Every structure is written in C-alpha cells, then in structure tokens.
Amino acid sequence: MKKIFKAKKKRKRLIKFRYLLFLGIIYLSFDTTYGYLLNKKADLRNSEYLMMALSNSNHHFVSTYKPKRIISKTLSFLSNVDINNPISLLNFNNKSNTVLAASLLEGDHVDNYDLNKQEKLTTYIKDPNPAKVDNPRVYIYNSHQLENYNDKNLEIYNITPNVMMASYMLKEKLNDLGIGAIVNEFNLAEFIRINNWQHGDSYKASRIFTLDAKNKYNTLEYYIDIHRDAIKHDAGTIKINNKDYARTLFVVGLENPNYKSNLELANTLHAKINKLYPGLSRGVIKKQGKGVDGVYNQDISPKSMLLEVGGYENSIEEVMNTIEAFSKILFEHIKGES
Hints:
Blueprint: H1 2-40, H2 42-55, H3 70-79, E1 138-141, H4 163-176, E2 181-183, H5 188-194, H6 202-216, E3 222-229, H7 233-236, E4 237-240, E5 243-246, E6 248-253, H8 259-276, E7 281-287, E8 304-311, H9 316-337
Parallel strand pairs: 1-2, 1-3, 3-8, 6-7
Antiparallel strand pairs: 4-5, 6-8
C-alpha cells in the first residue's frame, strides 16, 4: 500500500514538474521572441517616430507615441503583414530589398570587395517618407551609422535616435525647399560584416555606395557625411533665442586633391551659420597624417563635407533644430551658386 502511495506521489511531482517546465518554456519563448522583435525590428519604430517628428511642428510629442501591440508586432515580423494596414497584404510577396551593384569610377578600386554579397543587405533605418527624386543635387550618408544620440524618454519605446535620423531630416527639409536630396539608407555595418572588413573600413564601405550614387545621378553636386561627435552636452549644445541646438563642426581631410575647395566650402558655411546663429558652428578642423583618414571620401567631389552634428548627450529635438537651421543656410548657399 505504501509503495502505491509513493508511486502516486512521485507521479504527481513529475506532472507538476512537467507543468512548471512547460510554463517556463512558454514564458522564455515569449520573452525571447518579444525581445528579439524589439531589437531586430527597431527600424520600424524608429521610422514611425521619425515620421511623426517630420510631420509634427511640436517636437515634444514623445508621450503621444504608442508602440504596436505584441500580437500585431509579431504578425508583422513573421509575415510582413500589418493587421492595422490591410494594404500591406498586397506587398506580402514583394518583400525583397536589395542593392544594385556599385559602379566604380574608372581607376577607383576597392580591394577584397565581394560585389555579389550586396544582395543580402537590408536597410538599417527605413526612410519614413520615401519619394522618387529624379535629379538630386545633394547626396547624404552616414559612414558611421551606429552613432546614436541621447535616448532619454525614448528607450521605453525602443527608439534609438541616431545620425541616420538626422540625414532623413535634412533630406526632407531640402526637398521641401526645392533642392533635390537623397539618402543612403543601406546597412553599412552589415555590409562590412559580410565582406569580412573591420570598423576601420567604414569609409571604404560608404565609398562604394557614394560612387554608385554618383554614377547613377549625374546631377549630384554636394556630398554630406553626417556624424555625431563624442562630446558632452555642454560642449555640444547652445541656446539661441530660447531654443536649444546641437552644435556643428566641419571636418576637412587634407590628403586629397579636392581639399582646397572643400575647405573653402566648409569655411563659407561655418561663417554663414554663425552669422545667423551665433556660436552654433564650433568651427572647421583639418585632418591629415598618421592615425586619421585624411580623405573621408572628399576626393569624390569638390563639394564634399563631413558634418558633425551634436554629441552623444544631445537629444534628437536639439538635432532637429540644428538640421532645420542648416538646411536653410545650405539652401541659400546652393541657390546663390546657381
């Protein structure tokens, strides 16, 4: 009798253990899937947030942002179908997003580059407002796409404000002003990885896409590489007329044949910025020698610039204020040259 009782008790413990194990597996699966969706699909939320930023004149709208529910998010991730947007069903079988082969300039070579691997690329942060620009004059890109800004009040929504958002903002502002602009949105970190390159090859990676754009659009004149500096908030911020701005800095590489014209352009824009927004531009620095790039792809055009916008402690609102100001100054400069 005791043996039967012990056997039943053992079976109950085993059933209880299996039940708890089953619940644990369900919880871990849910937690892992949800975490994966938050991290891997961050570009969607970044794009949604950026679209709101571009369409809302009041930049302090964080509290109005509401992320998708987990069921909707999961379905969107697994099938690329948004239950809140039935039209997305039509795009279910048309999900490919590839990069055309880069056409290098004659005499321009990139070693150890596997052209066939480009088809594996995906966008890092999607363009929130894609529009066809037939004759762009400005090409905007980010050699260091992972340079982020302060995500205070945004991290709970899994939004990562970074330099690509600044690029899309500048593109929108210039297009609204009548200056055609395009942005390179493809994932350079992934491109570097699949070609077995290192982070130090970032400018080599961005060069591929810049040359491709130059060969594709013969109307391009200005090439702007937007970065974020490694400076604290006090050094990277200035208040002008009760509005906070992320300060700018122009970087000019001296180890290329276009350095004189690029230096002149940087000095001109620096002066124009500070004339209208005193202290907004931190200046122009020249780079050459051991330990620095010295070129920064500025040999591609005599109208190339590397623009640092703010530092890692700046908010995206401060960056937006600066981009809006810079877009107007660049517009007036380009219009004056025409």
